[in-house]
Amino acid sequence: MNFKWSYALMVSACLVATKTSSVYAIPESKAALKVKPMICMVKSIGQICEMTIAIQWQTTTAQDVCLYQDTQKLKCWQGTQQAKAKLNISLEQDMTFSLKNARMETLAAQKVKVNAALSRKYRRKLKSDWSFF
Fold it and tell me: Where is the signal peptide, in residue numbers (predicted)?
């Protein structure tokens, strides 16, 4: 193998290694929070969305943390570094879920959006206002 190809192969391997390792790394905030699904569909705007969400979080050190839906406390864990949970929630509008420590400092947050299937904003007009016939 000539030098150009071996150098290119080595550089691409390094790039792939750094990309794959950063996927599982904990961000600089020292906590990671995943809420799935991130979008809830309702029939029309104003309806309440009820769904089960899967929560997964991880911190660099074991600590007491609580999960909040806006200002409402949903669930707490004591002396834990990571956890998974499933919760039933109700949303009327976009909502931010946050992981807070005992001092009420936000360690991580994620937003869940509420989208309407029959949104007037994106609704297509089926018939024109005028006609030749």
Answer: 1-25
Distance CA(122)–CA(19), nearest Å, equals: 36
Nearest to 68 by CA among 114, 25, 112: 112
User: 71 in helix, strand or coil?
Assistant: coil
What does DSSP assign to residue 5? H
Top-level class of domain 26-116: mainly beta
Residue 109: name the closest of 91, 95, 93, 89 by CA: 95
pLDDT at 28: 45
Is residue 73 within 8 Å of residue 63, measured between CB atoms? no
Q: Alpha-carbon distance 48 to 44, whole Å? A: 9
- Take residue 48 and report the two structure tokens written for it: 């309440």
Identify the H or E element spanning 106: strand 106-116
Cα angle 26, 31, 36; round to 5: 90
The pair of structure tokens assigned to 39 is 């979008």
Is the Cβ–Cβ distance between 67 and 55 less than 8 Å?
yes
The pLDDT tens digits of the residues spanning 95-109 come to 999 999 999 999 999
